[in-house]
Please model this.
Amino acid sequence: MMIRCPICGALTTWQENENRPFCSQRCKLIDLGKWVSEEYKVVEPLDEKDKSTYDICHLDEENKQ
Amino acid sequence: MEDNKETQQNTVSVEDYTSDSIKMLKGLEPVRVRPAMYIGNTSIEGLHHLVYELVDNSVDEALNKCCTQILITIHIDGSCTVSDDGRGIPTEVHPDDKEGRSTVEVVLTELHAGGKFHNQAYKVSGGLHGVGLSVVNALSEWLEIEVRRDGKVYQQRYERGQPVTPLTVVGKTKKTGTSVRFKPDSEIFVETTDFHFDTLASRIRELAYLNKGLKLSIIDEKTNKKQEFVYDGGIVSLVEHKNANKNLIHKDPIYFYTKKSVPILKADNSASEEYDEVELEIALQYYDGYDEKIYTFANNINTREGGMHLSGFKSALTRAVKNYITQMMKKDSKKDTEDIQGEDTREGLTAVISVNLQKPQFEGQTKMKLGNSYVEGFVSSEVYSFLSNYFQENPSVAKAICSKIMNAAKAREAAKKARELTRRKGEIDVSGLPGKLADCSEKDPAKSELFIVEGDSAGGSAKQGRDRKTQAILPLRGKVLNVERTAFDKLLKSNEITTMISALGTGIVEKKFDTSKIRYHKIIIMTDADVDGAHIRTLLLTFFFRQMPEIIEKGYLYIAQPPLFRVKKGKTDTYLKNEAELTKMLIKMSVEDVVLHKQTEEIKGDRLLSCLKKITEYEKLISALDRKGLSRGLIEKMIEKSFKLDIFKDKDNLQKVLQLIEEEIPGIVVGEMTFDEEHESYGVRISRDNLDIDLSYRFLASLNYEEIYKLNREIEALIGKPPYKVTIKSDTKEVSCSSELLTVITEASKKGLTIQRYKGLGEMNPEQLWETTMDPEKRTLLQVKIEDYMTTEETFRILMSKETDKRKDFIIKHCLEAKNIDV
Model:
C-alpha cells in the first residue's frame, strides 16, 4: 500500500516500513510531539448558552484539577 | 659553485659514507625503535601512512603551484613509488649542514629536517603528518630517490635509513620533479607490507578534491588496476559527490574562497605582531534529509575531530541564518530565531571546510583536531560576512534554506516534547499503572479487554457495569473548554496519551513497540453516538494508526457500538444503533395494520414493506439534498419534468425545462447560464428566498441525483403519484407526499412504545451499558483494519482543517450517517 507520510508528505509504503505510516523515525516523533503538545484538536466555537451550561456541569471538576 | 658542489658530492667515497652513516643511523634510530610514535602504528594503517607521507610532500609542491600531477605506483616487488612534477628537492649542499651533505640527504636522514629548509613558501604539517621523508627512509628496507632538477637527473639509494650510494647524476632532463621508490621494511611491518589499492585510492581521491585541478593517479602493477583523480571543481565537486542522488534544497553548492593575513593570537588572546597567511575554502549545499555532514581539512589533512575552523564555521552559519530570518523574512524575530539552534542550521547540510595555514597545530587524541585559536575568529567573520551577502543576493536560495532550518527547529522542539512526555509516566499508582485505570483481575492479555471510554460519567457507568474479571476501563475526557472559554476543544490531552500508553504496557517512541508486552488483546474505543463522540473516535483511531499501527495489524483494536435508541414495548427493551434502524423497526411493526390504496388496488404486506424501504431510502437522499439548499419541491418538479443529468449538455432543452420550473414554482428565479468547459456542460444559478444554488452536472451528480430520480420513478410505478390514500387499522386518511406517508405509518406504530434517544453513554445506567455495548455475548464490535487507514486519515485531515463549513458538511455526511466504521 503506497501512502503519504502524514508529516512531510513523502511517498512511502505501509509494508516493510518500520515507521509506517511515516517515512522516518523522525517524522513519527514529530507527530508524537504534536499529539503530546495537544496540537491536534477540533475547535468548536460556542455561544453564551453553551458556556453557561458547561460551566454548571464542569466548573467544579475543573476547579478540582 | 653549483658544479663544485656536485663534484664534491660525486666524489664522496664509500668509506666516508660508512662513518657518516653510523651517526645518521643514530639520527634515525628513534624512528626504528619506536615507529608507532611517528606513524601511529606498524600495522596496515602505519604502512599506508608511509605513502601518504610522500604524497603529502608532493601535494605541498602543488599548493605552491609547482606541481600538477602526482603518480603513485605499487610495484610487483612490494615497493611503492611516489613521483611528482614539482621543483625537485634541492641537490646542492645544505647551507646549514656542517658535514656538507646535500639537501636531499639531510631531508632523508635528519628527523624533522623539514622546518630547516621549508621557508615561507612551504607549509609544515604537524602530528603524525609531515614527519617527512626521513621517517619513510628509516622504516624502509631500501629507498631510492630520483630528483629532476636544473636539467639533470640525480639518484641515490638508501638501506634502512643509511645512504649506500652517493647522490649521483645519471643523466640529463628538461623536466623537474621528485620520485621516491621505497620498500617497507618487513622487520618493522611484521603484520603486512602489502599496499592496498582501494585504501590508497580513497585518500588520494580526497586529496584530488582538496586540490582543484591537481591530477593524482594510482597504478597497481600487480593487478594492472589504474585510477586517475582530477577534479576541476575541487571541494565543490566533493560536495556534489556526497550529495549525489539526494533531493537538493538548492541546485548548486555555495562556494567561498579567501586568503588573508591573520594576526596570531597570544596566549591571552590578544593579537600579536606575527601573522599567518591563511587560506580558507568552503563549499556547502543542503539536501532534504536530516544528516549533518561537515568535512574539515587543514593543510589537506582530514581533521576528523574538527577544531577551530569547524567551530568558526558553525557559529558563523548560525548567526548568518538567524540574522537573515530576522531581517529579511520579517518574521516575529524574537520568537522564530530564539527557537533556532545551531544544530537546526546544520540539518541536511553537506559542507567541506578546508584551510591552509603555515603553522597548523594539531591536537586531540589522534591529532586530528585543528588547534590554532586565531583560525576560529577568522573563519567565523569571513564566513558570516560572505553568507550574509550571499543570502541578500540569492533570496530564493536563502529562503529555501531558511525555511528548511525553521522546520528543523520546529521538529526538534516537537520531538523533544514527545520524549519528555512519554518518559514521564503520568499519574501512576502503586501497581505501576495509571490511577485513572480500573484494571481487570485477569492477567492473561488474550482474555483481557480495555475499554477506552469518552467522558467521566460514562466511565463511571462502565466501571460499574463491566465484568471486573476481564474488562478494564480507562476514561478519557475528550471535550474541554479552551483557555479563553470561547470554544470547545476536542482533543486527546497529553496526560491522557501518556496514561493510555502506560495502561497498554507497550513502549513507544524510540523503543521499538513490543507487542509481547501488551496487556489487552481487545482495545475497545467506546464513544458517544454524537458528533463529539465521532471526533474523539477519529482522534483515537488516528493516534493508534500513526503511533501504534502494530495494534491494528494484530487485530486488537475495536470500536464499540452503543445504541442510539432504546425502544420499550411492554416489558421488552430493544436497543437500536441509529435512526435508520429505528425507522426500519417501526415500519416492520406496523406494516400488518397498513393498507395503501392505489386506485382500486390494495398494497399491503411484503409488497408494501419493500415499497416503504424504497421510500425510506428516497427520503434519506432527499433530505441530504435539502441540506444543500435544494428543496424537495424543486427536486420533485425537476423529476416531473424529466430533468436528467444529461440535460446539462443540451443548452436549449435545459433552458426550456428551467423556464417551466420557473413558471410553476413561485419565487424561483433562474439566472444566466454558464458553460463549464472542462466538463462540456452548462450550469445555471437558481435563487429562491435569497438562497443561491449553482445547479450543475457536477453538483447534482455528487448528491446522488440520479439515484433519487430512479427511486422516485420506481415508487411512482409501485404506488402511483401523491396524494396517497392510506388505511391504518381502520382509520383511512390522505397524505400529500411520500415523506408524510412514512411519518404517519411510523407515528402510528410509536403508540404504545417508549422510545428513548441516548444523547450520550452517560445516560445509560451501568446495567444498560453492559447489556447493550459491553456484554461479550450480546454486543457487536467493529474491528479496525489496516484498510481503514486511508479513510481515517482523510477524516482526520478534514477535522483538522480550518474551514469549519467543509468540516460540518463532512461530519453531517459521514460521521452521523455512515453505517460502518464511520469515523
